[in-house]
């Protein structure tokens, strides 16, 4: 599978710059999590990559060619989101749109589609504009898992889904990923849940890529140091601190650094942190110690 190269994308709406010089590479097969706070530009980025919006600068390349100028390239990309699939003037039944997807994509996975309709208990005789929010999401998910694209973008695929349906989604995603490896790029705010599924993470912060790494690397290089404030402050200046916290007289700093931690004094305890904590610390501006380069 050739990588999809996102190169120097800029996007402004009127005078407001929403995405600034976005570059990264999507390799396959992987499950990427695109994480970012509200308004950080995730949906805009998905829309630019999938030709639903035009960038002010930059391009998206597959096999060395800009995908927007290449129909074969564009067919390798699929975006499921909440605004584009559900147009207000669409009034047919769910089964009509599934039939259309089947006609449009000769390699549409009809067997998987029928299985997903069953496990999600989607009534295909419901008019598409009458689906509940959760079932609109389910319909989007079903199409996304069944199309034969190589890069599948899911913009908040858990929106409106109850806990049972989210569990079904994660399970079915992993099953189809194992059977037919391809690349999924999933934006979500449910970091703890997606942490069990994704193997790569891209962090978007205020319109810029703050980090792109494997989940394994990110967690291996992130940890908390807890103890006496003076000892910690004397020790941590060599490391990349992403946040700090005081509870009573316990002082904690959060570190994200590829350098090995050496000569840790006995008065300081090191403990692992989870992806959600890394995300919060990397995307919070509280001033003070919060973010300094070693
Ligand atoms: N069509 C548009 N016209 C003007 N501004 C827009 C448009 N689309 C997005 N924006 C602005 O761009 C910024 C990024 O929005 P975007 O929806 O991409 O963020 P997001 O990370 O997906 O947010 P959320 O997590 O809240 O869904 C926001 O400030 C939003 O108001």
UniProtKB/TrEMBL annotation:
Keywords: ATP-binding, Nucleotide-binding. GO terms for molecular function: ATP binding; ATP hydrolysis activity. It comes from the Bacteria. SMART domains: AAA. Residues 4-231 form the ABC transporter domain. PROSITE patterns: ABC_TRANSPORTER_2. This is ABC transporter ATP-binding protein. It comes from Vagococcus humatus.
């Amino acid at each position: 599978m050739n990588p999809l190269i996102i190169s120097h994308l800029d996007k402004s709406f009127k005078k407001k710059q929403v995405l600034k010089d976005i570059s990264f590479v999507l390799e396959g097969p992987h499950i990427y999590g695109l994480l970012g706070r509200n308004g950080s530009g995730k949906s805009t980025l998905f829309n630019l990559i999938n030709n639903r919006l035009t960038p002010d600068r930059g391009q998206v390349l597959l096999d060395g060619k800009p995908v927007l100028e290449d129909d074969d390239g564009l067919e390798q990309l699929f975006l499921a989101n909440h605004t584009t699939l559900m147009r207000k003037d669409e009034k047919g039944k769910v089964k009509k749109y599934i039939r259309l997807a089947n006609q449009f994509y000769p390699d549409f996975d009809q067997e998987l589609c029928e299985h997903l309709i069953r496990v999600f208990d989607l009534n295909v005789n419901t008019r598409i504009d009458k689906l509940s929010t959760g079932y609109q999401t389910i319909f989007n998910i079903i199409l996304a898992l069944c199309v034969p694209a190589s890069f599948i973008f899911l913009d908040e695929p858990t929106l409106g889904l109850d806990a049972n349906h989210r569990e079904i989604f994660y399970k079915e995603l992993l099953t189809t990923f194992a059977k037919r490896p391809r690349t999924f790029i999933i934006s979500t705010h449910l970091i703890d849940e997606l942490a069990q599924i994704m193997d790569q993470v891209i962090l978007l912060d205020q319109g810029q890529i703050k980090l792109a790494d494997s989940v394994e690397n990110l967690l291996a290089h992130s940890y908390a140091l807890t103890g006496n404030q003076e000892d910690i402050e004397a020790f941590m200046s060599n490391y990349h601190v992403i946040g700090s916290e005081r509870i009573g007289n316990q002082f904690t700093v959060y570190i994200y650094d590829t350098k090995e931690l050496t000569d840790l004094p006995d008065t300081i305890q090191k403990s692992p942190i989870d992806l959600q904590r890394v995300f919060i610390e990397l995307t919070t501006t509280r001033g003070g110690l919060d973010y300094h380069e070693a």
